[in-house]
Amino acid sequence: MHSASDEWWSQARQRTDILDLRDWSTWPVDITRELVALERAGLPATIETHDTIRLADGRRARVAPAASPRRQPGLSLDDEPELLLVPTPAYVNRRTFVEVARSAPNVLLVDGSQVWEDGRQIAGEPAFQELRSDRYAVFAVARTLPVASGRIDQIAAHTGMSVGRVGDALSVLGDTVRHVDIGWEAVDMFALADWAMTYNGPGGTATSWHHPGTVKEQARLLIDAGALVSGAWAAMTPFPGLSYLGRKDDVGTGRTRVAFTRNMPDMAALGFTPAVPPRDGRARPKFTVAVPEDETIFATSNFSAGGITDDTITVATLMRGYHETDLANQLRSRIHFRTDVHYDLIHHLPS
């Protein structure tokens, strides 16, 4: 919502009959932080031209965001800098940053105090701490125990993992689990269930798609193609034994629409088209389809519902997507209800 004082600016910028400026910004790029980081890494440099820097050893680097889309007069191909300096913006995923740094020897990557050259980090703290434990296995066991305690082989069957992976995950969970006469259970089932909902994603790759059909029609197409649907549609889909979280006719209104599949289906054959940002008008609803690294989400899915992720994964998806807190809280209550019933079945009923 623009104030009256700047409405003229917004309207003038929307003109495309002269130049389309909406996707361009040519304000100077401030690389002070990057030059300081380079100097601390033993690579002092100074600005040479509008889009290049020169290192003390004589090498030159082009500054990626400052590079002009048109070549400067008199600049020959032989004069191209040896390196490309990439100041990493805050919105770039850290893992993406590291993968690019490792595979691009002619790129100087600078992220805060971290500097990468020739595919290796030469300055700054480690880009991220590698998780030494199998986090997918740990989360799979954590979301299983509050609703399905049992022997290691039973947990393995429920999560689709080997007995060894389950055993390692139980070791990582440590004092939050304990061994009882029926096998393994959570010490505090509700606390472990809540922790499992902090699941930070299954990895893998994803693409987004448009379809002219309703959300229900799109979900059914994907489920029939072998995918698991998650997000708002999964949360509001009723299935035997559990309450319906939606209201009449609102099953198609949820914004977080995600599906997970082992193998990417032929989306064009299903009537989907790639979702691209609109040039004009409002954005259309989209379905994001992912091929995840974590395959335990298929084993722990809600089989009774037919083609939707388990409630814990659905909560995590809701909070990751459009942060649909109200719906996530309702689903959390449903998980706690199932946890409570499970606790009574194993502790308060006669054997």
Shape: globular
Largest sheet: spatial strand order: 1-2-3-4-5-6-7
H/E series = HHEEEEHEEEHHHEEHEHEHEEEHHH
Distance between the terminal alpha carbons, to the nearest Å?
A: 64 Å
Taking all Cα atoms into account, the compactness measure Rg is 26 Å
Low-confidence stretches: 69-75, 239-253
Count of the domains: 3
What is shown here, in short?
The chain is α+β, with helices and mostly antiparallel strands. It is built from twelve helices and 14 strands.
Features:
five-stranded mixed β-sheet; Arc Repressor Mutant, subunit A; 351 residues; 3 domains; single chain; alpha+beta
Care to describe what's here?
This protein is α+β, with helices and mostly antiparallel strands and about 350 residues long. The chain has 3 domains: about 25-125, no CATH class; about 135-195, Arc Repressor Mutant, subunit A (Orthogonal Bundle); about 205-340, no CATH class. Helices cover about 30% and strands about 15% of the residues. The protein has helices at about 5-15, 30-40, 95-105, 135-145, 150-160, 165-175, 190-195, 215-225, 230-235, 295-300, 310-320, 325-345, and strands at about 45-50, 50-55, 60-65, 85, 105-110, 115, 120-125, 175-180, 185, 205-210, 230, 255-260, 275, 285-290. The chain has a 7-stranded mixed β-sheet with strand order 1-2-3-4-5-6-7, with helices on both faces. A hairpin with a 4-residue loop joins strand 2 (about 50-55) and strand 3. The model is unreliable at about 70-75 and about 240-255 (pLDDT under 50).
